[in-house]
Structure formats: structure tokens, C-alpha cells
Write a structure and sequence with these properties.
By secondary structure, the protein is an alpha/beta fold. It has 4 domains: about 150 residues, Glycosidases (TIM Barrel, Alpha-Beta Barrel); about 220 residues, Glycosidases (TIM Barrel, Alpha-Beta Barrel); about 200 residues, 3-Layer(aba) Sandwich (Rossmann fold); about 45 residues, Immunoglobulin-like (Sandwich), CATH 2.60.40. About 30% of the residues lie in helices and about 20% in strands. It is built from 17 helices and 28 strands. It has a 9-stranded parallel beta sheet. A hairpin with a 2-residue loop joins strand 22 and strand 23. Helix 14 crosses helix 17. The model has no long low-confidence stretch (mean pLDDT about 100). Alpha-D-galactopyranose (GLA) binds next to loops.
Length: about 650
């Protein structure tokens, strides 16, 4: 990974000047200076105006914008402009349009209406990329290339005939022979045996449950196809503009499982991430913390670039909440605390027309004379004081294992409970541990675990043999691990590991379940330590583990719910049920103390503490003043911190600790 090519912790944003007359551009640039903007993302949706008809380009207006920004000292993250094909392409070549699982074509009239496997789309896109790279590849303002935009935001998969052929090629590469595919997909079941690759289709709509491994491979194929598009643009950029790093803006969050970003990361020069608070969640900022820790995990621990977020409301949720005064700064610092080396937004000026006209921006409809723009200026000033934080790395004692493939497979249909969702377990455990003031990495099961004091494995339904072996090795080396229910059940082909659950971890944990016993929605059980649990139980025996808690009621009364196996200096805990929030918090408290994790001794509700290099971030979104032990200097105020930093409700501190 290369470093973020902007200065300090830069403030940035998407700039769409084509929506405004030239007279506004000059005012824009003056306001950008006032806000201390470091970079602008330019050209994301400019294709139709840059290439008004096939092969005829109009770069004049774009040159002007680039010059204006450059003169104002604003760096540019230059989009390749291929995110939204112009109407001449989709009407002249309707074969580029995507098709859904029911065979319906998705037409032009919004954006991203292209099939990831379309060679026709690829050819037109690459022609534009070539023009862009030749014209701007050595422009002094251009510091970063931004391929397309949020690849997979709307179209993650396509079921058209072109995609079907590409899928068959992908399967041929993966399996080599049709018999290997038949084995992997378990096609002896329901007369699905294939005689040749030519018979295979994408998993289009079927009379009943489609083959799960077929679906899993289609998910793998689909992320690879979009990644293939990224790679094609990147390769051309590298050839024509070798000095400028290349990225694309990912969507790492708890809503979008479709792209396996662990596959994408090695192809990117740096990790850029878009994140929006989701007002539909009970605690949107807990999800923000998880998404940020996972982004850092995708980046292999390196600093990353927050490419988009919102200054206030979005426009695409059922009800779009504006931020309260002060939240913009706190929300932005939450990303920085968790490894972001830039804070950027969609978009500079709120649109007057179009589908996103009610999405917040840096300059709202009310104009620069507004509370929001004044907050933006305040944010720019605050980020300006944090320049020295750039490049430093977050230091976590705890890892939460996370795998997109496990997410895909766990959430397929025909499982013991349709109420069990992979991401729920991940969110629950990430939140419980971070609320203690512990810093958490969210990493792939293949990551090096040796530096962690505690590893949490929430509902890792699909798990490879090497990942299971690495976890066992980690525990043998003195590590502490917690595995939760419905983990280690299947291999990469979604084939059940036989002999009892949780197959991959049975030996490590010293337990064995013969059956699952999921609960009805709203049904709960009590444990003999007073905890309440719901959703899921297992008919479990502890063959080689200490039983820490048993069910106190219900059909499984007296049988184990929580166990621990001691392995040398380490320990392997198994939780066979879904504890409610307070019991999850209590178990997280016990585990982190047992494992000697750095955390707050007496955590305060709503107070976040994150360790990033020498810097201690304290963000207080609670109702009470936070007093946190620290010694050094608060970069935001310049004040000396002698023994404790005091942070008022709604406030923040970034303490450079004395070494
Ligand atoms: C995404 C897109 C932007 C914009 C925002 C709105 O992040 O990349 O173009 O649509 O969503 O929240």
C-alpha cells in the first residue's frame, strides 16, 4: 500500500461543477480555501459531457476546472468518469445493460447501468480512460486516480447471457473438469448433475431453493468480474500515468456483503472507503466504528482514505436525519481515530436538480452563510491540527475475525433459522468489546493473529481448514479465543463438516453438538449465571472443556451454553447461544480482563477511546463528562494533559502521548 497522497489529514470532497454555471466555480474555489479543503474528487459522473458522442471529446471545460483547483492549491483525485455510461452508449448498445435474476433488463435513466462482464462496455470505458490518462496523467494537480465509482453499489451481479458465458469460463478455470464442479456443488442432490460446463447457467430464478454452492460460486465470480473491470482500468492507468497511484472507493459496511474486499485490496495502491451513517440502525455509530475497523483490516492495518461520507442527512434512507450541531466533527474524528488519513464527503455543493438534490453537502442549498458551512470550516481547522497523526497505525489488542464468504454462505436460505444473520453476531461482539474502550481490529481469518491478546470468532459458519488450524495454533501459543454459535459448520464448498458441530473447532473447543435448537422470534432462555439469551441454542456436550454456564430453563435445561477449554497459557471459549446485550457486555468484560487487553477500567457509556500510534482519541457522545487517564498534549486545543484528559459531552480530544 502506498501512503495517502494528500497532505496531513486532508479534508476532501466530490466536486460536480458540471451541475453549475462557470460563475459559481470561482465562488466554489474561494469557499474551498476558506474551508481548508485539501483535495477534490473530480469527474465521477462526467462521461456524457466529456464524450458527448462516441469518440468526440469535450475536455475544455474540464481543463478549466482543473486549472482553477490547481491555482487554489487544491489537489485532485481524478475519476476515470466511467461510473455512469452516457445514453448514447446504452441506447446504441443495449447489450451492455444489466439483467436481473428474473431476466428483466435494467434500463438507462439512473446510473451504473452496465453489465460487469460486457466487452462492449469495457471497450468504451477503456477508450475514455485512455483519453483521460493521456490528457491528465501528468497534470500537477492530479495525485490519485479514482477508477469508476463504488463498483457494485447498484449492480453487483448480472444474469444476462454474456455474464452466463463469463461465469462458465470462470468455473472452467476454477474446476478444470465438470466432475470437480459436480463434487463441489453436490449435484448428486436433486438430479442436478452437469454433463458439461455448457449446461451451467447463472443462478437465475428457480422453482425452489437453488443449489447453495452454485450461489456461493456466483457470488465469488461476480465480485471477481467487477474486480476485473477495476483491474482493466487500473492497468491502463499504470501504463499511461505510472507516477499516480490508483484506487477506487469501496463500500465497507454492515449492509453490503457483495464485494469480497479482501480479494480487492491486493489490487489497490491504497484503500479508499465510502461510509454513510445508517439511521435505520439502533446505533449507527457502532456500525461506523465496525466499518472503519474492517476497512483498516482490508487495508492490512495501513492508513486509509475516507473518500465519501455525509456532512448531514443523506437522501436514500426512509427518513433522512440531519446531524445535530457538533456531530460532524465527532463523526469525522471517529474515522480518523480508526485509521483514516483523510476525511472526504459527497459532495461539495448540494445539487439543485436530480435524484440527490436533498443529500447534504459542504455548501448546502442555504449557501455558505449557514451553520453547516461554518461547521465544515471548523472541521477543516480541526483536521489541520491533526496533520502529525497521518501515517500512524492503530494498535489493537483484540481481533474480530471477519470473512465475506462466511457472510454469503451463512445468509443463504434453507438453514436451521432464517432469523440468524452473520453480520448481527459480528456487530454485537465488535460493539461489546469496543464499548469497553478496547481497540479492535477486524481481520480476515488468514491474518497473522500472533500479536493479539484476544480473538473473537463470531458465527464463522464457513471456515477453511487452514483458518481453523491457525486459530488452534494461536491458542496453543497462549492466545485467548471466543468462538460463538453456528461457527465452523461448513468448508469452502458449503459442505457440512461431519461428526458433530462446530466441526472445524470441535477439537479446539472440546465440545460437540449433535443438533441445533433455534428459538422462535422473541423466545428467550435463561442461563444459570443469570444471563438471558435468544435466537439460537445447541444440544451441546462438553467432552474436554469446563462448563461455565448451563441453560436454567427450556428443553435444554442443565446442558452447556458457555464453555472454556484451557490450552497451555491460553483458553478457548465457546458460546453456543446469542446472549442479550447486557450479558454480551458482561462476557466481553470478563474475557478482556482475563486476556489482559488494554481498555478503560471503568468504561463510560458513549465514551469511545481508540489508540492510534502515539495518539489517544477520546470521543464523548455520552451525557456525562469523561475523564480518561492520559499524559501529553491535546492536539485539538494545544492544552497540556497531565494525568487525565477531561472531555465534555459532545466533545473530543486527541492526545499525543508522552513516550
Ligand atoms: C455514494 C455515491 C455518491 C452518492 C452518495 C450519496 O456514495 O458514490 O455518488 O450517490 O452515495 O450518499
Amino acid at each position: 500500500m502506498t501512503g495517502i497522497p494528500f497532505d496531513g489529514i486532508a479534508l476532501g470532497c466530490d466536486y460536480n461543477p458540471e451541475q453549475w454555471p462557470r460563475s459559481v466555480w470561482r465562488e466554489d474555489v474561494a469557499l474551498m480555501r476558506e474551508a481548508g479543503v485539501g483535495f477534490m474528487t473530480l469527474g465521477v459522473f462526467s462521461w456524457a459531457l466529456l464524450e458527448p458522442e462516441p469518440g468526440r471529446y469535450d475536455f475544455g471545460w474540464f481543463d478549466e476546472v482543473l486549472e482553477l483547483l490547481h491555482e487554489a492549491g487544491v489537489a485532485v483525485d481524478l475519476a476515470t468518469a466511467t461510473a455512469a455510461p452516457p445514453p448514447w452508449l446504452t441506447s446504441g448498445h443495449p447489450e451492455v445493460l444489466p439483467v436481473d435474476a428474473e431476466g428483466r433488463t435494467l434500463f438507462q435513466g439512473s446510473r451504473q447501468s452496465w453489465c460487469p462482464s460486457s466487452p462492449v462496455f469495457r471497450e468504451h470505458a477503456l477508450r475514455l480512460v485512455g483519453e483521460m490518462a493521456r490528457r491528465y496523467g501528468s497534470h500537477p494537480a492530479v495525485r490519485l486516480w479514482h477508477v469508476s465509482n463504488e463498483l457494485g453499489c447498484h449492480i453487483t451481479k448480472c444474469w444476462c447471457d454474456v455474464s452466463a458465458a463469463a461465469f462458465r469460463r470462470w468455473l472452467t478455470d476454477r474446476y478444470g473438469s465438470i466432475e470437480k464442479l459436480n463434487d463441489a456443488w453436490g449435484t448428486a442432490f436433486w438430479s442436478q448433475h452437469y454433463a458439461s460446463f455448457d449446461e451451467v447457467l447463472p443462478p437465475r430464478i428457480t422453482p425452489t431453493v437453488p443449489n447453495p454452492t452454485h450461489q456461493l460460486d456466483f457470488a465469488r465470480f461476480s465480485t471477481d468480474e467487477l474486480l476485473g473491470h477495476y483491474r482493466a482500468e487500473r492497468d491502463l492507468l499504470r501504463e499511461l500515468s505510472p507516477a499516480v497511484p490508483v484506487t477506487t472507493n469501496l463500500m465497507v459496511n454492515a449492509r453490503q456483503p457483495d464485494e469480497d474486499y479482501f480479494r480487492w485490496a491486493p489490487e489497490m495502491d491504497l484503500i479508499a472507503q465510502d461510509h454513510y451513517l445508517d439511521g435505520r440502525l439502533a446505533d449507527p455509530r457502532a456500525e461506523q466504528a465496525l466499518a472503519s475497523d474492517l476497512t483498516r483490516g482490508v487495508a492490512g492495518g495501513a492508513p486509509w482514505l475516507l473518500m465519501e461520507s455525509a456532512t448531514s442527512a443523506v437522501n436514500w434512507q426512509p427518513v433522512n436525519h440531519a446531524k445535530r450541531p457538533g456531530e460532524l466533527l465527532l463523526d469525522s474524528l471517529r474515522y480518523v481515530a480508526r485509521g483514516a488519513d483523510a476525511v472526504a464527503f459527497f459532495q461539495w455543493r448540494a445539487s439543485k436538480a436530480g435524484a440527490e438534490k436533498f443529500h447534504s453537502a459542504l455548501v448546502p442549498h442555504a449557501g455558505a452563510d449557514s451553520a453547516l458551512f461554518r461547521e465544515v470550516v471548523g472541521l477543516g481547522a480541526a483536521l489541520g491540527k491533526l496533520g502529525e497523526v497521518a501515517g500512524s497505525r492503530v494498535r489493537a489488542d483484540v481481533a474480530v475475525l471477519f470473512d465475506y464468504e462466511a457472510w454469503w454462505a451463512c445468509d443463504l436460505g434453507s438453514h436451521p433459522s432464517g432469523e440468524l444473520h452473520y453480520i448481527d453476531a459480528v456487530q454485537r461482539w465488535h460493539r461489546a468489546v469496543t464499548e469497553l474502550g478496547a481497540t479492535v481490529d477486524v481481520v480476515h481469518p488468514s491474518a497473522d493473529l500472533s500479536g493479539y491478546r484476544l480473538v473473537v470468532v463470531p458465527t464463522l459458519y464457513l471456515c477453511s481448514d487452514p483458518a481453523a488450524a491457525a486459530l488452534a495454533e494461536y491458542v496453543r501459543g497462549g492466545g485467548h479465543v471466543l468462538v460463538t454459535y453456528f461457527s465452523g459448520i461448513v468448508d469452502e464448498n458449503d459442505h457440512v463438516r461431519l461428526g458433530g458441530y462446530p466441526g472445524a473447532f470441535r477439537e479446539l473447543l472440546g465440545v460437540r453438538a449433535e443438533e441445533f435448537a433455534p428459538l422462535r422470534p422473541g423466545e428467550t432462555v435463561t442461563l444459570d449465571d443469570g444471563s438471558t439469551a435468544g435466537l439460537w441454542t445447541e444440544v451441546l456436550t462438553a467432552s474436554d472443556a469446563e462448563v461455565l454456564a448451563r441453560y436454567a430453563d427450556g428443553p435444554l435445561a442443565g446442558t452447556p451454553a458457555l464453555t472454556r477449554r484451557t490450552v497451555g497459557a491460553g483458553g478457548a471459549w465457546y458460546l453456543a447461544t446469542r446472549l442479550d446485550e447486557s450479558a454480551t457486555a458482561a462476557l466481553a468484560d470478563r474475557l478482556t480482563r482475563d486476556a489482559g487487553v488494554a481498555r478503560m477500567d471503568a468504561p463510560l457509556p458513549g465514551v469511545e477511546v481508540v489508540r492510534r500510534g502515539r495518539y489517544l482519541f477520546v470521543l464523548n457522545r455520552g451525557d456525562a463528562t469523561a475523564v480518561v487517564p492520559a499524559r501529553g498534549t491535546d492536539l485539538l486545543t494545544g492544552a497540556r494533559v497531565d494525568a487525565c484528559v477531561t472531555v465534555a459531552p459532545g466533545g473530543a480530544a486527541v492526545v499525543r502521548k508522552e513516550v
